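Newbie here. two chains, one complex. Structure please?
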Amino acid sequence: MTRARVLIRPKEGILDPQGKAVEQALPALGFEGIEHVRVGRMVELEADDPAQLAALCEKLLANPLIEDYEIESLDGTA
Amino acid sequence: MVWGVVQFPGSCDERDAVHACGLAGEARLIWHEERALGGVDAVVIPGGFSYGDYLRAGAIARFSRAMEAVAEFAAGGGPVLGICNGFQVLCEAGLLPGALLRNENLRFVCRQVDLIADGARQSPFLREIEPGERLSIPVKHGEGRYYAPEEMLDEIEANGQVAFRYAPGQNPNGSLRDVAGVLNEGGNVLGLMPHPEHAVDPLTGSVDGLKLFSAASSALANA
């Protein structure tokens, strides 16, 4: 079993209203100087065969038209 | 003419869809686990929150058994209408171009909007609607911002695949180029965020939505 973490984020250039809303809320909380906030998703999983993870991302976890993904191994083997 | 309305766990507009289809033929529900469509003449993928909209709206529904059958049906030229969540499902399934993103202002919108039919391409659902015609149809969604890369938008516009746009000043969600509904290349698959099935009775203010159902019905009768 390989433990992996998949990070999914909106593609560069695609409007991310969630990120914008978070960014706009920050000054009111006293956090200054924070910009380009993007909100994505994280999926943690365990796989027998880590080689299938890219296909899994393309087919289900991410929509390649609007999202980029990154696969990180949590065991240093993926 | 028999309509099949696919019902997923989390669908919520299937009853209204069956009612609207029933005004233009007979209608029956198709449970998402059914692998065959049972010989229906047209299919509606209704609105709602299929599979809880987990991951992305429509992302999991597209892998259901019924959707495999719908994809085959569409490939054979069968008329398929995706409404709201159904539009999201058809985009996720690759049966329609583009994707639906979170509304620009992050708010769920629920209101009557005017649509303008683009309708350059022939579609069984658009036969009773003139290009440029205005239709009053309600929207109710949180993730309806139509998105496609610029080249894809140019391409679908050039192909006449934009079926409906929001009337000027009425875009409720930030959809690119005001796109409210698109067709596949063949014109037999239509997806739109507004709800024609909620606009079939004078009681609710507009019967403009009925045109889509009756058009498909008469298109099939004449086929």
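Moderator note: Helices of chain A lie at 17-25, 53-61. The interface with chain B takes residues 14-15, 17-18, 21, 41, 60-61, 63, 65-66 of chain A (CB under 8 Å). Thread marked as resolved.
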